[in-house]
Amino acid sequence: MAEDLELKEKIKDIFGRYVTPEVVEMIVKDPDNPRIKASKVDATILFVDIRGFTSLSEDIEPERVTELLNEYFTRVTYTILKHGGHSNKFVGDEAMVVFGAPVPNPRHAEAAVRAALDIQEEITRLNWERKQEGIAFQVGIGINSGEMVGGSLGPEKRMEYTVIGDNVNVASRLTSIAKGGEILISKQTFESIAGNRIRVEEKGQVSVKGRRGGIKTFKVLSLEGDQYGLI
To answer: In angstroms, rounded to a whole number, what is the distance separating the alpha carbons of residues 5 and 73?
Structure first.
């Protein structure tokens, strides 16, 4: 009995570095069936991508580039976990994050925006700490909310929880046009945050492949309750 409890605590510690406590509990409760059945979920997707990292890395030793990326992703991951997000994928210097799935959160849109604001603050802090090295990160963030399909994909040995659908593509598109230091959100995300607690700047319509018409977008300035906001 004591050994089982010790093993569970070790599992929680290991997985807890990468996913939210709620997801860890789901794994621990049913370790023999880690696959999460596919279903429609209401969630928010956040993509964060470093701007100009290729040119930045050309003047730095490869080992230092790896160190900087690890430090960057560590800060991003801890910020995401703090706000209940699930770090879904890391591809190159881009991260995809899910809020509201697999563990439901009725305020997933707000959680994602708060995480985005904190990420930008972390980047500002990182740049200040690395100022003497002449290193300055800039990241663009795109966020969209809505219905999508979530579930475990891939073979048994390499499966992962992820979400797919048109609303994921919209978030990716917003990220691709977000400038360094910007957080762009869709109208769906904007309207998902109750009241007038979020300050934004309208950015106009953006075309998205596979969609008729454009997507109305907003640049996030601040959210009520934030200590800093964006400058």
So the answer is: 31
**Do 67 and 137 belong together in one domain?**
yes
Mean pLDDT by 10 residues, the chain (231 residues): 50 47 58 64 95 71 83 90 85 87 91 96 91 84 95 65 89 94 96 85 84 87 66 34
16 and 45, same domain (yes or no): no
- Residue 9's pLDDT is 54
Asked whether residue 125 falls in the same domain as residue 25, the answer is no
Q: Are residues 185 and 219 in the same domain?
A: yes
Helix, strand or coil, per DSSP, at residue 217: strand
- Domain co-membership, 6 together with 109: no
- Residue ranges with strand state E in 94-227: 94-99, 139-153, 160-164, 183-186, 198-207, 214-223
> Does the pTM of the predicted model rise above 0.90?
no
Please give the pLDDT value at position 198.
92
Number of H helices, E strands in the chain: 7, 8
Nearest in space to 87 (alpha carbons), one of 172, 163, 167: 163
CA distance 51 to 74: 18
Give residue 18's domain range. 1-31
Q: Are residues 88 and 7 in the same domain?
A: no
Residue 60 lies in a domain: yes
Which of 103, 142, 89, 102 lies closest to 119 in space, CA to CA? 142
